Amino acid sequence: MSVETFELAPGYVIPRIIRGGWQLAGDHGEVDRERAIADMAQFVAAGINTFDCADIYTGVEATIGEYRKRDPSLQVHTKFVPDLEDLPRVDEAYVRRINARSRERLHADALDLVQFHWWDYEVDGMLKVAGLLAQLQREGTIRHVGGTNFDTPNTQAMLDAGVPLVSMQVQYSLLDRRPAGAMSALCARTPVKLLCYGTIAGGFITEKWLGAPEPTELSNRSLIKYKLVIDDFGGWAAFQRLLQILKRIGDRHGVGLSAVATRWVLDQPHVAAAIVGARYAAHLPEQLQVFTFRLDDADRRAIDGLLAECPGPQGDTYALERDRQGRHGRIMKYNLNKT
Q1: CB atoms within 10 A of CB 270
Q2: C-alpha to C-alpha distance for 265 and 93, rounded to whole angstroms
Q3: Three-state helix/strand/coil letters over the chain
Q4: What is the per-residue pLDDT across 270-307, written as a single tens digit (0 to 9) for each?
C-alpha cells in the first residue's frame, strides 16, 4: 500500500490525506500533548508528511512545531485568519507579525502554505491583505498561498488581483456537496485545487454512529457543527441510510465505511487532498485504508441514488456559515487570535 500524492504546485507534492490539527486545540476534549507529538512520527512514517493547522487553533502551531524541531522535513499548512473585530485594522504590520509568529511557532524559515480567510466581505481590505500575503511569498517567508472558506466570486476576485492561489480549503463530503458547483467550475479554469475538510463529518461518518439513536447532546463544537449538516442533508433517518450504504460498500472491499466516504471525496474533480483530523495515531490504519481500494460503478450507483434524494446544504461554499444570525453561523467563534 502506497500513499497517493498530488502536485499542488510545481515542485510541491502533498499526500492525498493530510493530517488535520483542529482536534489538538482542546475543543474536542483533553489533549495529551506529549503523546500527540510522539504520535506524529507514525503519520510521517506512513507517508502522511503534511499536517494542517491554523493560527487560530489554540496551541496547535506550537505543538506541531515541537515535532517539526525533530523533523524539519514535515510540511505544514497553516492559516492566516484575522479576528472579525480586527478586520478594519489589518495592515502590513499585522500581517508580518502573524507571519513571524507562525514561523516561530512552527520552527520554519518559510511557511509551506498559508491559507487566508476573511470573515466579512463587507469589511474593506480583503484584496489588500491577500496581496500582502503574496508579497511575503515573493520575499520568501511564505512558499505558497491558498484560501480557506471563500465563496467563488471572492476567490475569483483574488485571482484577478494577481494573488497566486494554489488551493481553497472547503468543507466537502457526501453530506455537503456545495463545492461541486461554482467552486469546482472555477477550479476547472484556474490552478486552484480543493483541500477538503469535514469528509467524515467530525467523526459522524463512522461505524460508531451506524444504527445509533439521534443524539440529543453533543460533546464538542465539531459534532454540533456537523449535526447541522446532517439535518440539512435530510435528517437522521437519511443519514442512517447513507451509513448503511457505505457499510455495505466497505464490507465488499474490506474497508471501513469512513474510507468509502473519504474515497468518494478524493474521486471528485479538482480535489487534491482530504484533511482528516486526529489527536493521536490510533485511527491511522483505518485512515490509510482509503488507498487500498477503488469505488466501482455499482458502488457509485448505490451512493448516487441516495444523493439524488438528499441534496444537502445549498449555495456557494461557506455561504451559510457566514450568516452570523443563521443556524450555522451562530455556533462559530470569530475572535480567536487575540493579537
Answers
A1: 17
A2: 39
A3: CCCCEEEEECCEEEECEEEECHHHHCCCCCCCHHHHHHHHHHHHHHCCCEEECCCCCCCHHHHHHHHHHHCCCCEEEEEECCCHHHHHHCCHHHHHHHHHHHHHHHCCCCEEEEEECCCCCCCCCHHHHHHHHHHHHHHCCEEEEEEECCCHHHHHHHHHCCCCEEEEEEECCCCCCHHHCHHHHHHHHCCCEEEEECCCHHHCCCHHHCCCCCCCCCCCHHHHHHHHHHHHHCCHHHHHHHHHHHHHHHHHHCCCHHHHHHHHHHCCCCEEEEEEECCCCCCHHHHHHHHCCCCCHHHHHHHHHHHHHCCCCCCCCCHHHHCCCCCCHHHCCCCCCCC
A4: 999 999 877 666 678 899 999 999 999 999 999 999 99
For residue 131, name the pLDDT band (cuts at 50, 70, 90): very high
Measure the CA–CA gap between 256 and 158, rounded to whole angstroms: 39
Residue 220 pLDDT level (bands cut at 50, 70, 90): confident
Q: Contact at 8 Å (CB) between 308 and 302?
A: no
Orientation of helix 297-309 relative to helix 236-253, angle to 10°:
180
The bridge status of strand 5-9 relative to strand 12-15 is antiparallel
pLDDT (tens digit per residue) in 32-76:
777 877 888 899 999 999 999 988 866 789 889 999 999 999 999
First to last CA, the chain: 44
237-275: pLDDT as tens digits: 999 999 999 999 999 999 999 999 999 999 999 999 999
C-alpha cell at 62: 506550537
Residue 339: its pLDDT value, please?
46
17-20 and 271-277 beta bridge pairing: parallel
Please name which of 93, 24, 12, 111 lies closest in space to residue 64, comparing C-alpha atoms. 24
